[in-house]
Amino acid sequence: MHKAVILTIGDELLIGQTIDTNSAWMGGELNKLGIRIEEKIAIQDTREGIISGIERAMSKANIVLITGGLGPTKDDITKKVMADHFGMKMKFDEPTWERIEGLFARWGRSTTPAHRDQCYMPDGAKILENKMGTAPGMLFEVDGKMLISMPGVPYEMKYIMEYSVLPMLEENYTDQAIIHHTILTAGEGESRIAAQIEDITERLPEHISIAYLPNLGTVKLRLTAIGKDKNKLTEEVKVYGSQIENILGDLVYGHNQENLPSVIGKIALEKKLKIGTAESCTGGLVASKIVSIPGSSAYFEGSVVTYSYKLKETLLNVNTDTLNKQGAVSEETVNEMVAGAIDHLGVDVAVAISGIAGPGGGTEEKPVGTVWIACGNKKKTVTLKIKAGKNRQKNIEYASNYAMNVLRKFLQAQ
Amino acid sequence: MHKAVILTIGDELLIGQTIDTNSAWMGGELNKLGIRIEEKIAIQDTREGIISGIERAMSKANIVLITGGLGPTKDDITKKVMADHFGMKMKFDEPTWERIEGLFARWGRSTTPAHRDQCYMPDGAKILENKMGTAPGMLFEVDGKMLISMPGVPYEMKYIMEYSVLPMLEENYTDQAIIHHTILTAGEGESRIAAQIEDITERLPEHISIAYLPNLGTVKLRLTAIGKDKNKLTEEVKVYGSQIENILGDLVYGHNQENLPSVIGKIALEKKLKIGTAESCTGGLVASKIVSIPGSSAYFEGSVVTYSYKLKETLLNVNTDTLNKQGAVSEETVNEMVAGAIDHLGVDVAVAISGIAGPGGGTEEKPVGTVWIACGNKKKTVTLKIKAGKNRQKNIEYASNYAMNVLRKFLQAQ
Questions:
Q1: Are residues B181 and B160 in the same domain?
Q2: Contacts of A389 in chain B (CB under 8 A)
Q3: What is the pTM of this model?
Q4: Pairwise CB contact (< 8 Å): A360 & B18
């Protein structure tokens, strides 16, 4: 099986100034080709850092993808370090210069001496065209290994990957297939899910593995199969996947790239149901997640965020009496919020959330983290209480995820 | 100078299923303490991967922070591999078990056998409390190096870092002082800000640097000073900081750990103003950001998210005529949305947003990315139009940030 290491160069990655999305994208693309990613290493923009990283990468893999450290400023030294390390001289590359001159002419700007310096390339490296910027990519073949160096600007890297690197890898470096299948669940914790499906996971063959990725009320289960025969792997993963889903039942809300808002959208569209939200402690977060999906205007009408008692009364018809006797965080209140939302928003199905996000506002009877959720239509409303933790932001996220899952299940049952 | 390597464990990071934000945050925190981050390495969740990563890390640094690979399920093997590698036996840790039982009792749920297994810890590792989840952190001291292993769930890792790791590092592993001072701006781009303050930044002394961190309508300017004398550095950074702020004027909305919602809250509280939002394309995101601040119920009343034309009329009194003639994305509509929100929400100041987030819905006259924002009270409303890009999620974030800045400036002027 071919193996790859991704090397990313630059202090901004190490000190947390930039979140590295490049390597995640590259990893996803390599993985689709069945190339195993051994490691990702982020290194300093220094000679020693780059050499040490390259040596490590070459000891681990036969494909090394490098980003960053290429560009017109002085702190970009990758190219020279690699040329020295592999014993290559620098040579002026005329086509690169012509391309840069063309780019600047088109932008109506003039080049600087730094751009001419940028055209000196290691003699022996193959130049990979970059139509998105000035620094081209470079391909080195050394000791039977392939090293590719690209600029760190995301769209420049992606251009070189898509037009040069991925087609070449697909042609020459795919021998084993890797199949992933992710089952998305909500409403139960990692360990409880693991216990439920233990009978299946214990008899998974060696070449199929399962991983659990929990996050605030949701758990992703990822099945990974590695082998020669892509179709056979796909079939096997499908069989184990459906066995797992049979056991987990309606904890499962979707697969792979889906998420709760996209699944809610899919069902609402299918069933031609208009939806809306009535939110207190989540403050509009559920609504904002629903509209993150393109085309959500086809099923999402709107939302009322009633943070104060008064607005619960005026915008959602919650009875003053209910609020005074049961409190804003109560089954009765979320029930009335649903009815009020259906009425005021003119929707078929509404979900309501009211809770104590903290850090203040908790009582002995209703501690911080207590959240009531209701979901219903004109005929029927379901309610439930959840107990979140003490962290405000986490409680809000958890309540939002939970509420979306309640909405998803209610829509499915229509 | 002390050196650190951050090791992150898990295939989900290598295959691009999860974007690694943990290590960026950890890098930022270490950097603040003046600890140099040598490398970040993402490795596979296998015995060989973990051992090879640990060996590399220990050869490069005296502080090794490890995340991931701890949890109640079988795919989490870090703990056992580390115990074996350092020749430690596993021992049942009673306090951890008591804590887990307590957590589950509070949640009203029962533990599983997997949770008991989770309490076996390497005998010789120091346990670091994790109040956010079941898996505690572990501290190993080996060959004069310190290794800390934490779960990969972001808020669990952050809890352990904030309560155990960072205080210990600050006490024992800082020899040089690093002072950061961050100036938060909104409403202008990076290059334009850089040009405005060039006269100051060009004469910064060698030991003080400036970094620009742009993000969708906001730019953070971070001044960093390194040296022996903490008080002197603090004073210097303060002087340069105020020179920069004098030039940037009301582009500056806050400092350091503040953010737009916290600044909005501070001003609203100070001026005793109740606020609310009327949102279309942002779908409640502005409201949800405002309520992310503890205590926001003191000044935030609520919000109306009107995604449909109809709700703009019924919940915000926008004239049918305005919608038909000017469209939902127009100066007139957001103006009327503000008036409607002040009326229906009973607030002193409201902000309204209506735009075309995309990918659909654009026209030649109003392309995707066109967003109108208005902010006002009963007497006066200001409006402005922004042109965002083509990416839906980015447009929504950009419009939300912009709207919050408009609200911040309007509140400041009251």
A1: no
A2: 132
A3: 0.81
A4: no
